[in-house]
Amino acid sequence: MKEIGTGIIASMFFAVTFILNRSMELAGGSWLWSSSLRFLFMIPFLVLIVALRKNSRQLFSEMKDQPSKWVLWSFTGFVLFYAPITFAAAYGPGWLVAGTWQLTIVAGTLLAPLFYESSKGVKNRRKIPLPALFFSIIIFSGVVLIQMKHASGAGSWALLAGVLPVAAAALAYPLGNRKMMEVCGGRLDTFQRVLGMTLASTPFWIILAVCGYVFTGPPSSGQVVQSFIVAVSSGVIATTLFFIATDRSRHDEGKLASVEATQSTQVLFVLAGEMILFSSPFPGGITLAGIGLIIAGMFMHSYFNEGRLKRISYSRAAKNL
After folding, report:
1. Helix boundaries (H) for 250-284
2. What is the pLDDT of residues 223-242, one digit of tens each?
3. Which residues are CB-contacts of 303 (< 8 A; sequence separation ≥ 6)?
4. pLDDT tens digits for 299-319?
5. Minimal CA–CA distance to 109: which of 183, 175, 193, 169?
6. Whole-model pTM?
7. What is the DSSP letter of 231?
8. DSSP output for 63-96
9. What is the pLDDT of residue 317?
10. Where are the domains of the chain?
């Protein structure tokens, strides 16, 4: 499925976030700067892309029509997502943050009843796609296995500080993303939506930057460079690819859950990145078993939805005969 492939590529670029955030914290950088700089750096890239596509006027018109919703769901999807992740990086290793983040694959599926779909003029609550939930739980079980070996060596405070904020972020990200898709109603493309959410959340990033300056002083040159890399890789490339995949799947709850489940592959990319950059040891038996569960769960997601979509296509073709 094309959308799942796009989601996996997005996960590869998202993985840069967990690796470099931890690197910046180890170098003494503040999480306040790590979070705010990423989104402030994203703005000129997104403004240029939307301007070249000549879509700016439509975006600002949409934002003007529903300003409170744009601020609320942008704050939920961006601020409540990224600020806790950068905070957690100060207290937990990259593998712990990336592993806990995989709660988002289950959280996204469980959010279905909060949304409605129209059928013959009647609005009905969406149902939780049970097969997708089952496959997501398999994936998350694999993530838990990966973390088991490492968690035993972490202190209780590191576990709490590295887990609880990320658990909140894992719920906020899919909620904000899905609500903004609902607000936009397919009228905006992905670049417009990402830029709109970034602009709507900018006041909060400025507040965090001011706090960072007051409490820790200006960021180091190394933190600025690494934040810029995160902004381009994770903020522009990964976010845009992921939003494209979710936009294409937004009318199908099962397909959307499969796309969101691709975020589980971030753990694999983070493990590989830490092995290359930090000379981490090659994973052992339990970790390899967890990786196997993640791959199996993703395969089942893809296989099930591909088969289901083909059955729907055949059924519609038969009705037209």
Report:
1. 253-261, 266-277
2. 999 999 999 998 889 888 88
3. none
4. 776 666 655 545 544 454 445
5. 175
6. 0.78
7. I
8. HHHSHHHHHHHHIIIIIHHHHHHHHHHTTS-HHH
9. 43
10. 2-320
